[in-house]
Design goal:
Its EC number is 3.1.-.-. One of its GO terms (molecular function) is hydrolase activity. Pfam families: Lactamase_B, RMMBL, RNase_J_b_CASP. This protein is an alpha/beta fold. The protein folds into 2 domains: about 290 residues, Metallo-beta-lactamase, Chain A, CATH 3.60.15; about 150 residues, Rossmann fold. The chain is about 25% helix and about 25% strand. The protein has an 8-stranded mixed beta sheet with strand order 8-7-6-3-2-1-21-22. The radius of gyration is 22 Å and the shape is globular.
Length: about 450
């Protein structure tokens, strides 16, 4: 199956009909462009895109099976990574030996990728090309332009993918934050200009398509987080997603205002903050103290930021709740703040973790119960999606990055915003954008690979 010079195809192998494990292909004139290459973390009992169910005992790290494109790797012109979240970048070290193509990424994203590749002894084998916002690159038959948007991690980018057959706008993960704490902002004029040029299809994030209104700005969290910390008499541990450098910025300010010392607990937090300092994203990184010193400070001077907001095994917060973290021990009267919301499927595990902390006399503040906002989503709610459709005005809407209900809600929203046609599908469907829009269902076999005992295994 090879596209000819008149074809412009979109083929998702992961991330459509599900949230996570993103792996997308665009085809034209005999070649393919890959966008993102991410992992997922199985949640037993959770139904996934192909109708199967995650089961206990599966490999802890899973990714889309790239067999279709690995069998055609001579046709793969390159891989573009839109940002450094695990569900977009995490599979590169595992799958690149099967692909062996150049990888394009922004500065912060490239720094995170280099750190991952070094762990697999691939750093000097993988050609990484750093790109800047607004830059255009010729990759095979495609011209790719990187466009600035905002998200919950530094250096996110949308893509305008051009070729002689047509143009596709690929949103990546995004939100419209008019006052981001870190990183570049965005300009509506950028996307309005795309409409003037003409966009055949908009392939767009659906995560919060079911959420009304507008997402909260990261900067709006300062007041709520400061109040939650200031009220605490003992130690404070804040748990959040490790990639959210803006949240770390905000918490560093809260630490200064409340007279506490801030330290990081968890490998991913430490790695992300190191990458942020190395790329100039986080100027306040030198205000951190060594996590080994936290246990020696008076309780009212401690503000620790910990991994484990989703109650993942072996993360810092899970170890704190179990009383076996090497750097810090919680006591009755301490406080844990969840500056994150549950990813669907993790609710039971998080509830059990909260119950364990509460049983030890630790007070727990969740984003749902807080009086003021202490967490902000990185994805667009309905008003933001509507604004983007009004700006870009694509001929065709292709909702991705969501489960069935999110994709359906996204398509309805696109229709109500004046987009005449939407294509809703899932992994393995071939979306034909040009010459005639349509879908060929389940044309390509898809599946999942897991990494277990040092090798890739098929997850049935």
């Amino acid at each position: 199956m090879t596209p000819d010079q008149n074809d412009l195809w979109f083929l998702p192998l992961g991330g459509t009909g599900e949230i996570g494990m993103n792996l997308n292909l665009y085809g034209h004139d005999g070649q393919w462009l890959m966008v993102d290459c991410g992992v997922t973390f199985p949640r037993p009992g959770r139904v996934i895109a192909d109708g199967s169910v995650h089961r206990a005992g599966e490999p802890p790290v899973q990714m889309a099976d790239p067999a279709f494109i690995a069998d055609r790797r001579e046709q793969l012109a390159g891989l573009v990574i839109t940002h450094a979240h695990e569900d977009h970048i995490g599979a590169v070290p595992y799958l690149w030996p099967l692909l062996q193509c150049p990888v394009y990424a922004g500065r912060f994203t490239a720094e995170i990728l280099r750190r991952k590749l070094a762990e697999f002894d691939l750093l000097h084998r993988v050609p990484i090309i750093e790109v800047a916002m607004g830059e255009r690159r010729r990759i095979g038959p495609f011209e790719v332009e990187w466009l600035a948007l905002t998200h919950s991690i530094p250096d996110p980018s949308a893509l305008m993918i051009r070729c002689p057959a047509g143009n596709i706008f690929h949103s990546g993960d995004w939100k419209l934050d008019d006052d981001p704490v870190v990183g570049h902002g965005y300009s509506p004029k950028t996307f309005q200009a795309l409409a003037e040029e003409g966009v055949d299809a908009m392939v767009c994030d659906s995560t919060n398509a079911t959420v009304s209104g507008h997402s909260t700005s990261e900067r709006a969290l300062q007041e709520g987080l400061q109040a939650a910390v200031a009220e605490a008499e003992g130690r404070v541990v804040v748990t959040c997603f490790g990639s959210n450098i803006a949240r770390l910025h905000t918490l560093a300010g809260v630490a200064r205002q409340t007279g506490r010392y801030m330290g990081l607990l968890g490998r991913s937090l430490i790695n992300m903050s190191g990458a942020a300092r190395a790329t100039g994203v986080w100027a306040d990184g030198d205000r951190l103290i060594n996590s080994a010193h936290l246990g020696y400070l008076p309780r009212h001077e401690v503000l620790a930021v910990a991994t484990g907001s989703q109650a993942e095994p072996r993360t810092a917060l899970t170890r704190l709740a179990a009383g076996n973290h090497p750097d810090l021990e919680l006591e009755a009267g301490d406080r844990v703040i969840f500056s994150a919301r549950a990813i669907p499927g993790n609710e039971e595990a998080i509830a059990a973790l909260i119950a364990k902390l509460a049983g030890q006399g630790v007070s727990v503040v969740t984003a749902e119960a807080a009086n003021l906002p202490i967490h902000a989503s990185g994805h667009p709610a309905s008003e933001e999606l509507e604004a983007m459709y009004r700006w870009v005005r694509p001929t065709l809407a292709i909702p991705v990055h969501g489960e069935a209900e999110h994709l359906a809600a996204h398509a309805r929203l696109a229709r109500d915003t004046g987009i005449a046609k939407s294509l809703i599908g899932r992994n393995g469907d071939l979306f034909m954008v040009r010459p005639v829009p349509g879908i060929r269902r389940q044309l390509v076999a898809t599946g999942r690979l897991g990494f277990q005992r040092g090798e890739l295994v098929r997850v049935v």
